[in-house]
Amino acid sequence: MPAMSRPLISRRAEPLTGRAKVPGDKSISHRALMFGALAVGESRIEGLLEGDDVLRTAQAMRALGAEVEKLEDGSWRLWGRGVGGLMEPADLLDLGNSGTGARLMMGLVATHPFTTFFTGDASLRSRPMKRVSEPLSRMGAKFVTREGGRLPAAVVGTTNPVPITYELPVASAQVKSAILLAGLNTPGETTVIEREATRDHTELMLRHFGANVTTTIREDGARVVTVTGFPELTGRTVIVPADPSSAAFPLVAALVVPGSTVTLVGIGMNPLRTGLFQTLREMGADIRTDNPRIEGGEEVADLVVTSSALRGVDVPAERAPSMIDEYPILAVAASFAAGTTRMFGLSELRVKESDRFTATMNGLRACGVEVEAEGDTLIVHGKGAPPPGGATIAVNLDHRIAMSFLVMGMAAAQPVAVDDAEAVDTSFPGFVELMNGLGSAIEGN
Ligand SMILES: O=C(O)C1=C[C@@H](OP(=O)(O)O)[C@@H](O)[C@H](O)C1
Ligand SMILES: C=C(OP(=O)(O)O)C(=O)O
């Protein structure tokens, strides 16, 4: 928990110009630490995101017995324990603000024969965990949780894991990953079926470490992902691309601040993560993809973004998993666009670090934007002009809400403030310095 709050205010920016490298991908960073801890021998990670969420995972993997060492900025070395070789942690694992850290690790320990206690900050303690405890219980683990399946929770790992086939009731890469990770120390084949494709970093990276993970497409289009138990994972090098979810903030900023051109280098372009870029292009955004290449097994590219007149569009529900963390910043972009943007299928936004559906709607309204909610659809009416701004937004421990409204302030008629930007460090340490380096005017308030 932050000891003190960090209020910030974002005033009208100069045209944003220059090249910037946003920090490493958060999803890939968590997984690199976890899989390195499970592999036999040494693993190296280059470009690790050193944000609070990922540092908590590094600490937790140490508590589970792996050697985890920072060499220099972004460059880490691990010495793993082998599949099934994790040790009972002597104390609570505190995953801070991180749903990914908590849920994936619950999967990892569910099939180890010891008990692990999990907790987190006020945000994480309010988030639903039944979505993982339910399938992991079917594999044999036992859970003692607070009311509603919330943290703190104890996971009593099973000595006798049972493989399952599980069809995901919600589109969630975290739930999919938790089950696949539990399946590593389980005999036979563990299968997860997802009707909507979610980010596949677990599948890609497990294969990179030597696991047998197959993905097939069922007749109805669902993806069937199967991991074979007891693989021999061996130490590897992971090169972490820049996080497309973090790139979203300078990218939208460059679109809405007139006269801007910004180059964002080495951005992860995994097709299951690029829904925002597609949507913004449909809105008329000038985003050029330069120098596409493969780095460390992941697609990356440089994005050259030039400020653009945007127009409202419909964003279909099927696209939600590929841009799930980007809706708050998309809604900010939509408030500058000419016409109405309808974002369908946003139920999962209500269970993130905060209720992002409500936070986005209320924040935009406070900034003078006309917004409506119809069930799980968020509707933003843009005027094709800068919205009024002039509000202070309550962040409620949600990094993406803080960054989205600071971007709003860069081009709104009046400045926009946030009550506490401390949470930004969970995913984007150096956000203010990077943005101000491009020309924004964010300062303490
Ligand atoms: O697997 C992951 O790394 C993540 C999956 C998504 O969560 P859900 O699985 O809850 O959709 C996303 O919101 C989160 O930021 C990271
Ligand atoms: C939802 C997010 O992360 P997590 O679930 O890991 O807390 C996010 O980073 O927007």
Automatic annotation (TrEMBL):
Keyword field contains Signal: no
Database matches in Pfam families: EPSP_synthase
Catalytic residues (positions): D325 (proton acceptor)
Entry keyword set: Amino-acid biosynthesis, Aromatic amino acid biosynthesis, Cytoplasm, Transferase
Residue positions binding 3-phosphoshikimate: K26, S27, R31, S172, Q174, D325, K352
Compartments where found: Cytoplasm
CDD domains: EPSP_synthase
SUPFAM superfamilies: EPT/RTPC-like (SSF55205)
Binding-site residues for phosphoenolpyruvate, renumbered to this chain: K26, G99, R127, Q174, R356, R400
An example molecular function term from Gene Ontology annotations: 3-phosphoshikimate 1-carboxyvinyltransferase activity
Catalytic function, reaction form: 3-phosphoshikimate + phosphoenolpyruvate = 5-O-(1-carboxyvinyl)-3-phosphoshikimate + phosphate
Record-stated family: Belongs to the EPSP synthase family.
Subunit note: Monomer.
Protein known as: 3-phosphoshikimate 1-carboxyvinyltransferase
Species for this entry: Magnetospirillum moscoviense
